Amino acid sequence: MNSVSESYKNNPLHLKHIIPLDFKTALKLPDSHAWTLPDHPMADPLTHAAVPVIDLGSPQAATLIRQACEKWGAFQVTNHGIPIKLLNQVEFQTRRLFALPANQKLLAGRSPEDFTGYGLPRISTFFSKLMWTEGFTILGSPLDHARQLWPHEYDHINFCFTRN
User: Fold this and answer.
1) Those residues with Cβ within 8 angstroms of residue 105's Cβ, 6 or more apart along the chain or in another chain
2) What is the pLDDT averaged over residues 12-23?
3) ∠ at Cα 69 (68, 72), nearest 5°?
4) Distance CA 39, CA 48 (A)
5) Cα dihedral: 118, 129, 126, 96 (round 10)
6) From CA 149, how far away is CA 69, in angstroms rounded?
7) Keywords on this record (predicted)?
8) How many CA atoms lie within 13 A of 155 on its CB side?
9) Which of 19, 21, 87, 120 has its CA 20 to 30 Å from the CA of residue 133?
10) Given this model, what pLDDT does residue 17 score?
11) What count of Cα atoms within 13 Å lies in the side-chain half-sphere of residue 42?
12) Are 159 and 150 in contact (CB under 8 A)?
């Protein structure tokens, strides 16, 4: 069985499935990003249920996570033990990253055979239209990508080593 990295190297993406649309400079919506209702059906537009909130201290946490993944594909956790100060710093650095101009973010772009760096998610190839999203996938240390984005040490060190 191949590892994930071997699978990605053996099945590289086309650039259109890697580079996100620069929404700040787009003057009109390109056809490649125009999803119609049949392209993206809603499960039940009348459902007003909230995304599940799961207390990690609960004895049923594992079961609740499984159920949330099966039904929603997402959930929010509480009692995770991560200090709010650290979460705020991570959010600040994330906003700092995505506020960069598109050409600067592309310096840390994901290569066609890789899965880390800036770009569209790998699942984008499964859809007929391109996604309205951008992402930065980190596996291990983000230091190499951070150096590409911020060549001055004090800039990339702050991104990689958020302190509590």
Assistant:
1) 97, 98, 118, 134, 136, 149
2) 67
3) 65
4) 22
5) 20
6) 34
7) Iron, Metal-binding
8) 12
9) 87
10) 57
11) 6
12) yes
Question: What amino acid occupies position 110?
Answer: R
Within a 13 Å sphere around the CA of 41, how many CA atoms are in the beta-carbon half? Answer: 3
d(C-alpha 115, C-alpha 6), whole Å: 11
- Residue 68: the pLDDT is 94
- Whole-angstrom Cα distance, residue 159 to residue 147? 10
Q: pLDDT > 90: what percent of the chain? A: 21
Please report which confidence band the pLDDT of residue 79 belongs to, taking 50, 70 and 90 as the band edges: very high
The CA-based angle 116-122-125, given to 5 degrees, is 150
pLDDT tier at 144, thresholds 50, 70, 90 = confident
**3-state DSSP call for residue 39?**
helix
DSSP state of 73: S
